[in-house]
Amino acid sequence: MYIIPAIDVLDKKVVRLREGNYNDVTTYDISLEEQIEKYHANGTEIVHIIDLNGAKGDFSNQEYLFDIIQKTEMKVQYGGGVRSIEKVKELVDAGIYRVIVGTQAITNPHFLEELSKLNEGRVKYADHIVIAIDVLDEVIKYSGWLESSPIKLIEYIDKCLALGFFRFLCTDISKDGKLGGAGVELYQKLLDHSPIIKLIGSGGISSMDDIKALNALGRMESCVVGKAIYENKITIEEIKDWNLKSLINF
């Protein structure tokens, strides 16, 4: 299991939200460029960047983000406001390693079907897609966690698998931003239902003990860690040491 450091950006600032609440924001005194370089200098190969403005339909951050992302040598897993097939294609063609889709995949019944068929030359765009599943009490949330979906969690995973999407970023909203521990029970349920999925855990990770608990599930591909790094609960050196020993090959 590989640890992927997270950087959430709101109004061009590095931040963390508590349970997805835009009114409960912690802002950190470091720029996006500086944070990316810090991870890169310590051997991290992939970074998770979320445009929180984009997640709620405000795209004022995008030019700023893309200028920075295109300069880094790191692989970027990017999300926030990816609402069209054209945007997915644009991001992949621009060199984004993985594109996270969430709201549009839930609200537009044809989006994933169209995306599953999008190929150009040797590029199969579905291979670069991460399906975001943001869950609160087994209810899927979207639009920056502001709306609830009637789609059942397990049914949605089955639909995605049937269309050829196999990598999921599952955030346990009840844990997110609290440093209270990861959603091990939720991830266990998903893995028991679909052992073939590539699952990325997110939310609540507060220590290396939480990392070890996720790793003990045996089938987690990776996990995203954000606030624990900024609050010095997990050091970048610990992440470096863990990832060097990881068998996951990005």
Automatic annotation (TrEMBL):
It catalyses: 1-(5-phospho-beta-D-ribosyl)-5-[(5-phospho-beta-D-ribosylamino)methylideneamino]imidazole-4-carboxamide = 5-[(5-phospho-1-deoxy-D-ribulos-1-ylimino)methylamino]-1-(5-phospho-beta-D-ribosyl)imidazole-4-carboxamide. Its EC number is 5.3.1.16. GO terms for molecular function: 1-(5-phosphoribosyl)-5-[(5-phosphoribosylamino)methylideneamino]imidazole-4-carboxamide isomerase activity. The keyword Nucleus does not apply. Pfam families: His_biosynth (PF00977). InterPro entries: Aldolase_TIM, His_biosynth, HisA/PriA, Isoase_HisA-like, RibuloseP-bd_barrel. It is found in: Cytoplasm. Pathway: Amino-acid biosynthesis; L-histidine biosynthesis; L-histidine from 5-phospho-alpha-D-ribose 1-diphosphate: step 4/9. It comes from the Bacteria. GO terms for biological process: L-histidine biosynthetic process; L-tryptophan biosynthetic process. The keyword Metal-binding does not apply. GO terms for cellular component: cytoplasm. Keywords: Amino-acid biosynthesis, Cytoplasm, Histidine biosynthesis, Isomerase. The active site is at 8 (proton acceptor), 134 (proton donor). HAMAP family: HisA. Belongs to the HisA/HisF family. This is 1-(5-phosphoribosyl)-5-[(5-phosphoribosylamino)methylideneamino] imidazole-4-carboxamide isomerase. It comes from Sphingobacterium allocomposti. The gene is hisA.
